[in-house]
């Protein structure tokens, strides 16, 4: 099953940095195991463009739509057997310590 893993900042990171995993090791292990299909760091929120259509009119705004302290800073597309495996992969990611990880299953639109 495919899962999108949103890597986010958090206003209350773990203060114990000693046990935080290494990102390069996390990427290498999950790439080698075939669990990580794709991943990337995102540009900062200031580089975002928000696109909306209201009453047929295109509205383009620089930056994020809402002010927030917690932002998505990256993503990884995972292939895992189930949610338990996806949680284990997310738990081992450094940002589960310094930020937060949101996992969502992809919906199969072919069914």
Automatic annotation (TrEMBL):
Residues 1-108 form the YCII-related domain. Gene3D superfamilies: Dimeric alpha+beta barrel. It comes from the Bacteria. It holds the Pfam family YCII. Belongs to the YciI family. PANTHER family: BLL7171 PROTEIN (PTHR35174:SF3), BLL7171 PROTEIN-RELATED (PTHR35174). This is YciI family protein. It comes from Dactylosporangium salmoneum. The lineage of its organism: Bacteria, Bacillati, Actinomycetota, Actinomycetes, Micromonosporales.
């Amino acid at each position: 099953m495919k899962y999108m893993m949103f890597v986010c900042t958090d206003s209350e990171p773990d203060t114990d940095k000693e046990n935080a995993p290494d990102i390069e090791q996390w990427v290498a292990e999950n790439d080698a195991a075939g669990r990580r299909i794709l991943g990337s760091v995102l540009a900062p929120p200031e580089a975002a463009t928000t696109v909306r259509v209201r009453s047929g009119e295109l509205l383009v705004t620089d930056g994020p739509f809402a002010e927030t302290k917690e932002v998505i800073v990256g993503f990884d597309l995972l292939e895992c057997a189930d949610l338990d495996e996806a949680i284990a992969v997310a738990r081992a990611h450094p940002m589960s310590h310094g930020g937060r990880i949101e996992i969502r299953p992809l919906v199969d639109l072919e069914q």
